[in-house]
């Protein structure tokens, strides 16, 4: 299976799915510490409905 990630991606689709499946009782900062990423990264993936990178090309 070929996975295309953004060059500087710090998470994989598997980790993103785990973030999305985490119960709301776990805070963003706890998840960030667990996965070694910023809380902004957790917020970004926690509330998206998919686990794939969005296009970064100019529209």
Index terms:
single chain; 59 residues
Structure write-up:
42% of the residues lie in helices and 0% in strands. The chain has 59 residues and is mostly helical. The protein has a domain of 34 residues.
Q: What is the string of helix and strand elements?
A: HHH
Cα(first) to Cα(last) distance is 28 Å
Mean pLDDT: 85
Alpha plus pi helix count: 3
Number of strands: 0
Using only C-alpha atoms, the radius of gyration works out to 12 Å
Uncertain residue ranges? none
* Class inferred from helices and paired strands: mainly alpha
Lay out the secondary structure.
Blueprint: H1 13-21, H2 28-35, H3 39-46
Helix pairs in contact: 2-3
Put the structure in a nutshell.
With 59 residues, the chain is an all-alpha fold. The protein has three helices and no strands. Helices cover 42% and strands 0% of the residues.
